[in-house]
UniProtKB/TrEMBL annotation, chain A:
This is Amino acid/amide ABC transporter membrane protein 2 (HAAT family). The chain crosses the membrane at residues 6-26, 47-65, 77-98, 103-122, 134-152, 164-182, 216-234, 265-288, 300-327, 339-358. It comes from Labedaea rhizosphaerae. Keywords: Cell membrane, Membrane, Transmembrane, Transmembrane helix. Signal peptide: none annotated. It is a multi-pass membrane protein.
TrEMBL record, chain B:
SUPFAM superfamilies: P-loop containing nucleoside triphosphate hydrolases. This is Amino acid/amide ABC transporter ATP-binding protein 1 (HAAT family). It comes from Labedaea rhizosphaerae. One of its GO terms (biological process) is L-alanine transport. One of its GO terms (molecular function) is L-isoleucine transmembrane transporter activity. InterPro entries: AAA+_ATPase, ABC_AA/LPS_Transport, ABC_transporter-like_ATP-bd, BCA_ABC_TP_C, P-loop_NTPase. It comes from the Bacteria. One of its GO terms (cellular component) is plasma membrane. Pfam families: ABC_tran (PF00005), BCA_ABC_TP_C (PF12399). The lineage of its organism: Bacteria, Bacillati, Actinomycetota, Actinomycetes, Pseudonocardiales. The keyword Protein transport does not apply. The keyword Transport applies. Keywords: ATP-binding, Nucleotide-binding, Transport.
Amino acid sequence: MTSDEIIDLVEMVVLVAVLVAVGKLFQRSKASGRLGEWWNSKSRVEQWAWLVPLIAVVVLIPVINPPFLTTEPGTNFPITMFNCALYALVALGLNVVVGQAGLLDLGYVGFFAVGAYVAALFTSPDSQLSKIPYLWTLPLAMVVTMFFGVVLGTPTLRLRGDYLAIVTLGFGEIVRLLATLMPPLKGNVGFQDVGHPPGTKADGGALFANTNGTPWYMLTIGIILIVLLLVGNLERSRVGRAWVAIREDEDAAEMMGVPVFKFKLWAFAIGAAIGGLSGSLFAGQVSFVNNQKFDVPTSVLFLAAVVLGGSGNKVGVLLGGFVIAYIPFRFTALASYKYLIFGVALVVLMIFRPQGLLGARQRLLARGRQAYQRLIGRPEQLSSDSSLVAEKAGDSA
Amino acid sequence: MSDTPEVEPEGGIVAELEHMTEAERAAHEAEVAEAVAPDREIAVEVGDTLLELRDVTMRFGGLVAMDSVSFSIKRGEILGLIGPNGAGKTTCFNAMTGVYRPTSGQVLLEDRPLGRAKRHQITHRGIARTFQNIRLFGEMTALENVVVGADARHQTSVVGALLRLPRHHREEREAIDRAMALLEFMGIADRAADKAKNLPYGYQRRLEIARALATEPKLLCLDEPAAGFNPAEKDELMGLIRKIRDDGYTVLLIEHDMRLVMGVTDRIVVLEFGKKIAEGLPAEIRDNPAVIAAYLGVPDEEDTDGAA
């Protein structure tokens, strides 16, 4: 081991130890329960009053560049933050498929790749196609990947569990191999100078240059917020309930009138669209697309982000995405061991906290909070433990 | 069954219920009944045929689970389906709810064959069921479970939900109120906010019925709803099944417990080895020699050709 590796290792261990200790103390003091209660007791408006400053801090992080968190001099910090945000967005999309609807998708990188190629084909001078402004490629990428999602989903979503996982794994590889083999997609040579959003800095350079991570980061955070809002809307509707019902018991769901196939396909299409959106953001920031970035391990990293953060919890998977992207940049000397580190982390997590970092389930009723308060005078059970509802001695049955 | 367990003093209709006078409670129950069965005329006369099985045969390889079984269920009645273990009762259920397609024969709901309708379409047409081994959505709260059932009648599209169009709001509000009324009707409203997997067994059984009722079925199929219940709980369930019928639903009941079946059903169909061996009023079934033979066996010296 080199001294750099040792320093990084020690730093990482210290960071993890501090986080675990804080988490433990937090739980021990029952503060986690009280925090949840406190948060749930707030009205929507009050919650936003807390969220807005929090979001402001998150948005400004690359500018603040906090000392211990910074990845410099190894990697430009704003660029790191952009990658973290990108992974968070990917995790958010994959969470719809894996976390909500319970469809194990091992080929999610395929959709990411399609999105990236859409951006490249329509903006790079290396492409034969007519050019459009970069920002238009974002919705276009969503539509195209959604189409791919439906094309892949229609024949395969009749499969369940492991079989679906294998087919999606194949899909991811098919996309990568097509990119390698089809001449118009230019394989390893790829596309240079992928477009970017308009805007110039004071010194005349492009605002969204690929060396300038901050605007890209802020753009991505903005997109995450919109997606979060829309996905939240779906979650607290018959669509979100249908997804969770399918995840819990597909047969029973169908018997209760849920059109299972239709809603699985929607989950797949919506997940694909978010994957494509993040792919085109990636292409824009890196400004270069070839076939090298879209391999199976990347798919597995995406999935690890979802599982690590808390499958089914949209805030959790954002955190998971951040962590997965952040660690290799922060501890550059250990970057080559990242799969080992994530592997060990996941094993440990599955033993001590199988529900992921933020494991609480999500609300599934619109205005459900108010409804529960009005109807039975207490909030619904979100945490996974059953201590809330210690069996009362009087309850027979 | 236990009384409503204590709840926190602050607000909520469950807490209110305990402080009601007799008259107020009756008025409240009428309200609940109205929400549970909004579009039905209470106390439907036992009338025309709702569901009909015509020569339904189910074959699994060489095994004949149902051998040209025919019977019909009339609107507003409680029909019992009984038989010894392995007689084909649950297979019959599955053939009616679209889990299996009959090898031959037809199932007709309101004179229209179910044909190749998918399971969720059959639910849409008005058949709902519970499961012999409870199959709730464990991670959802009791209320959410019931709302999933109510969703079967909802029209909100994915786009409507995404953008929270007015229909979404209206349906959500109605669904929550109706689901809560159903939970109250089943006597489990006090645990509406708990995850289904954390509910006591008896609550889970009743939650399944509430979820099935939420799909607004014409025919409610209960697959051994009293399994694992003690006598007092069975009595309560009997009352509940009668109440469900009185609200205008038609009930098909698979049950092993003879006291419950005899006590609550209007008519009984008996299956043995996939064949219908008897059909009639509970009193007739009780004295039917073929049924007694099926359940108790016949002494060797006696002739067994009494099967009708």
